[in-house]
Amino acid sequence: MEVSKQALQNIISDEDRLLFAENIPAEYLSDALGRRTGTADALVFARSTEEVSGVLRYANENAIPVTPRGAGTNLVGSTIPLFGGIILDVSHMNRVLELDRDTMTVTVEPGMLLKDLQAYVEERGLFYPPDPGEKASSIGGNISTNAGGMRAVKYGVTRDYVRGLEVVLADGTVLKVGGKQVKDASGLSLKHLLIGSEGTLAVITKCLLRLLPKPETTVSVLVPFADLGTGIRSVLTILQANANPTAVEFMERKVVALGESFSGVQYPRPDAGSYILLTFDGHESEVNANIERVRRLALDNGAIDYIVLRSAEQAADIWKVRGALVMAVEAVSEQEPVDIVVPISHTADFVRYINELEASSGMRMIAFGHAGDGNVHLCVVRDGRDQQTWERELHDNMEQAYAKAYSYGGVASGEHGIGISKRPYFLRETAEDNLAVMNTIKTALDPKHTLNDQKSYIVGGK
Amino acid sequence: MEVSKQALQNIISDEDRLLFAENIPAEYLSDALGRRTGTADALVFARSTEEVSGVLRYANENAIPVTPRGAGTNLVGSTIPLFGGIILDVSHMNRVLELDRDTMTVTVEPGMLLKDLQAYVEERGLFYPPDPGEKASSIGGNISTNAGGMRAVKYGVTRDYVRGLEVVLADGTVLKVGGKQVKDASGLSLKHLLIGSEGTLAVITKCLLRLLPKPETTVSVLVPFADLGTGIRSVLTILQANANPTAVEFMERKVVALGESFSGVQYPRPDAGSYILLTFDGHESEVNANIERVRRLALDNGAIDYIVLRSAEQAADIWKVRGALVMAVEAVSEQEPVDIVVPISHTADFVRYINELEASSGMRMIAFGHAGDGNVHLCVVRDGRDQQTWERELHDNMEQAYAKAYSYGGVASGEHGIGISKRPYFLRETAEDNLAVMNTIKTALDPKHTLNDQKSYIVGGK
């Protein structure tokens, strides 16, 4: 079905929030990586729930595909319009609607950026714990992929901070799920079904988020180890000791070296084979007690040093290297970002397997990530390969990597979502019955499959 | 469709795990309250996933209603068989299947009792934080109602400790959802949809639960206030101060008096109008620091005393009264248990409203509960009313109480579930679109509506 200009103009009053066909900038036809581009008939910048609902109702009545979009920082192709139709962008819906100090909640529109939300609440003595690496991502997007990030070890992931949502279903129905109450045992949890659903079931229009009081202090510690296995094994001991770290990241020395040359910061102890980077937050006495607790454990478990980063500048420098890893890789070559998650008991095994795969395949795979929760980030590097070779070799290697992760009881994505780039591996490794149930739900809620069709778990026809 | 003895005997090998019609003990036809009784053609005690699957497949093929059942401690009628058919009891499936110290997870069968799980892990230096009042409830039941309990303020509810599930769908399909990995952004979260679904979508056969290291120490504090409003308002201040209490309970003096005479324990400061009972856990230095932090806040906010319960015996006595409240009420009269949850900013308003309703209606309503999360327990007392008067007056008063809770942004149940006894209020107060989506999912996953039909959110026909 063709998109009618007139119909959309009737829903979106401002001309400048409605673009058609060849006037749609290329960036809106892709994701953050820009490796693949789709096509679309219209791009709509919605400003309200009513507009979102109007567009979805129109699209649904006319079986027009819709691709929802926030800040466009997605890494797995979720924002690529595969079948033409309408790109429904909510990035203009970026206001704070309410701060409620009594219930420690904030209500924001889905297009608000994570960094803006963090700044807004921290200026007011409050704290939004989820901390995905991409701070220019939108909150709606964070919820749609159940984003994780650095502080997940202590605080959990985005799911744990969503108290309520307003969403619009494929047919335009506006639904409010959850609310300011803390507990809920009242009917099916539609809220939890929607979180992480990658825009396949609904478009988020309001986000009611749980906040915490801002921690009094935050201190990071850099712990060098002779090798990665020793470092990661020590993490299990640390996690079992009630020392309550906020973040536990791991980096191999070769990976740090990349980040160093990109960022200009040098890590101490360049003789280390790997580093564990920890953060602790809370009241000062508690933080100090936990730092000493972990010092003993780390040194007893093979750490070759234990460097408490007391100054904020020093900590910022060390984290800067961690934050720059992906950009450091991308500065030299195209890369495929992977965020496989395995049970933490298998993190070291999985990274060792990746090192072997790298050696046997000749394809560079740079591993780092969240040691505290088994979420391993890989940058699989294209280097000088031509397009065809790159695609073929990448696919072969990824088939093996995902199969290994699933054999350890892991899953394809810890925080990026499945989208289209991980979909072949996710579909291959997921039990048919699970896929069937997911698709039954999809088809029940969006019978015409207008919303983000053929992404993530969606298989089969309409 | 009639239940075939032979068909069930083909699935369940032991004769003593299969009872028919008049041989079914009355307790299996009701819930923990025993006020209402259903009928059933067969009672099956399943021992394995295969048996559960076999029974469900048989029932589904023959459109026979199935009522799943665990320990039978449900308070809202979820375990009452409304339409005959089969009672599928999993209480014999009560083993620990695996303790995995590296991932800090335990896998248990659904019939395991909460108290047995708590004892099992605590003996091993581990900790299962969810702590619903009914310790003889089953883990499968806890998951089916997303049970909460005393420690939810710091640790969250059952949902937050379910890493994975094995379930059997209405047609007998065995599904594994979630796993030992910590994060998951891979397709729809069927796990979270199933948690809290009150046996309407599937029967749980295995529970993979997240554990924490056991806290070093636990200390309770009793804080008397002149009146309830002052006490509850002080809780908001305490929660915003990063003092991290594990439990925050509130009790009016008149409620404590009931518990005292039932349990034989006397509370200090009988001149108080209300008490806040707090617990702190963690490392000793941290617990002590938080106790002193809250002491200042409480005394600045109207507390008339601050009694740290240093001895375990003293703390046990004080908690014994809190734990005995429901039994204290039931010793004198039948009662309707209510567990409405409102945004914490409205807890005091809601309790005040209940006091007014009690005064105007002449029906005793005993309020206490979880001040830290707005989860208000009410015992609505029958006293000398005849059956008809009791039912009518209860219904009239509850319609008002639920309407008021929803007007504050609350919901019908924080932890007990909806079942049949809260269903009229839940259906009345929940938006039609939300009910429609829940029912669409139900019908998509259980087209013949064999599983726990017409309970909780389920409306309309098959």
TrEMBL record, chains A, B:
<dbReference type="InterPro" id="IPR016169">
    <property type="entry name" value="FAD-bd_PCMH_sub2"/>
</dbReference>
<dbReference type="InterPro" id="IPR004113">
    <property type="entry name" value="FAD-bd_oxidored_4_C"/>
</dbReference>
<dbReference type="InterPro" id="IPR016164">
    <property type="entry name" value="FAD-linked_Oxase-like_C"/>
</dbReference>
<dbReference type="InterPro" id="IPR016167">
    <property type="entry name" value="FAD-bd_PCMH_sub1"/>
</dbReference>
<dbReference type="InterPro" id="IPR036318">
    <property type="entry name" value="FAD-bd_PCMH-like_sf"/>
</dbReference>
<keyword id="KW-0560">Oxidoreductase</keyword>
<dbReference type="InterPro" id="IPR016166">
    <property type="entry name" value="FAD-bd_PCMH"/>
</dbReference>
<dbReference type="InterPro" id="IPR016171">
    <property type="entry name" value="Vanillyl_alc_oxidase_C-sub2"/>
</dbReference>
<dbReference type="InterPro" id="IPR006094">
    <property type="entry name" value="Oxid_FAD_bind_N"/>
</dbReference>
<dbReference type="GO" id="GO:0071949">
    <property type="term" value="F:FAD binding"/>
</dbReference>
<dbReference type="Pfam" id="PF02913">
    <property type="entry name" value="FAD-oxidase_C"/>
</dbReference>
<dbReference type="GO" id="GO:0016491">
    <property type="term" value="F:oxidoreductase activity"/>
</dbReference>
<keyword id="KW-0285">Flavoprotein</keyword>
<dbReference type="InterPro" id="IPR051914">
    <property type="entry name" value="FAD-linked_OxidoTrans_Type4"/>
</dbReference>
<dbReference type="Pfam" id="PF01565">
    <property type="entry name" value="FAD_binding_4"/>
</dbReference>
<feature type="domain" description="FAD-binding PCMH-type">
    <location>
        <begin position="36"/>
        <end position="214"/>
    </location>
</feature>
<protein>
    <submittedName>
        <fullName>FAD-binding oxidoreductase</fullName>
    </submittedName>
</protein>
<keyword id="KW-0274">FAD</keyword>
